Amino acid sequence: MNPFASATELRSELRAGKVSASDLTELYIRRIEHYDTKLNAVVVRDFERARQAARAADAAGDSATAPLHGLPITLKESINVSRLRTTCGVPEWQGFVSQHDAPAWTRLRAAGAILMGKTNVPPMLADWQSANPVYGRANNPWDLGRTPGGSSGGSAAALAAGLTALEVGSDIGGSIRVPAAFCGVYGHRPSETLLPKSGQFPFPPMPNAAVVMGVQGPLARSADDLELALSVLAGADIGEDIAWRVVLPPSRGTRLTDFRVAVLPPIPWLPVDDQIAAALDEVAARLGRIGCTVKRVQPEAFGDFREHHVLYRQILSAVTGSRLSEKARRRTADMWRTVDDEFARATVRGIEGTTGDYIAWNGRREMYRAAWRAFFRDWDVALAPAINVLAYPHVDRSWPFDDSDVTLTLDVNGRAVPYRDGLVYPAVSTVAGQPATAFPAGRSREGLPIGLQAIGPYLEDRTPIRFAALLGREIGGFVKPEGYE
Questions:
Q1: What is the mean pLDDT of residues 336-362?
Q2: Which residues neighbour 434 within 8 Å (Cβ) at sequence distance 6 or greater?
Q3: Which residue numbers are catalytic?
């Protein structure tokens, strides 16, 4: 049994009887018990229920045809599962034990998946580091001194180290794509309305139409696995599922040369690590050499992306601020007022804005939706960095976040760049709710994974996923880190 095999390959072996669900589950449990002492990725464990489910899967034998039958998986800690804790890394919630299942787990369980546990996150899912006062710090399997990303950092670390076959995370600020890039795996941020958004945090699994931009989606060791998971997860949220059904269109291409590839020009005011920029250029050049239509171009409406990012920061802080107490919101607004730049001011407006402001901001999202629709008449995917930095050394941060949240910087090509500017490239697709697939694109001089993202047309999620799968065959896909044999 190869713990680093793709979920698609493992599913085939399970169906062919080459491996049993019990043996595969035990393999992953042993690996978690052995390797997770240094990774701290799988922080909520449900091994006994997993073993029971595996025995039941084996007993069903050939009669079981569910698409994930017998496949051991993990989920992000914030996703509710009955009888398991959901804390989101917040000490005040560490006693919460869910009495219900999120739609994501309900669908995965119905598809035959076996849940071994849940993976580490930052407090309130609000960082690209997965360290919190409840479970401690998750580490990157490529370099234990670096972050695996966040907020689905434990998810990506567990996949890269071969501790699970498949994962589901969530993304509003790059929380699927950044960990995928930092750990060298694949991650898909779905079209905004393709999957249920409900079932996270210590709340009942009830939809809230006013909460926008955040999605749940799969992480995996292959792009094919993303499509497999999406086929199970896609569908209307609770209440709408009585009538609505999803029929995803096929990918626009079946061969790499079928794709018309736009490469987004550099955002002029945002430094990007030279090695990430070089990887993007190399991918573009290679696509051109094999016969793809490739051009450096972006939707005209985006301009220099400043207004776009201001809108994003307003909506993001309005959505995430709604989870805070009034006192915490005031403290956060006062903290951001100490910084005199347009994005800090946008954050404050988001926290303090009126209902009318929020409705107007959502109206402005439609301008960018229209711009992407027009753009994707001529192009099939748009390539960009997943984030502007490589996985960086751990940064000690307090909870609740303090003034360092607004003063923290990272070194990018010898320049001090605001930490929160890491939101810029994730937001390129997030504002309009476009699907985006993060994929591995080589290694840095330090041996760290480099990740890019392919943004696709709305509700055509199979297009960027298939593109990433075909590109992986051309340039290489997931590579396991050393030390996890």
A1: 97
A2: 191, 372, 455, 456, 457, 458
A3: 76, 151, 175
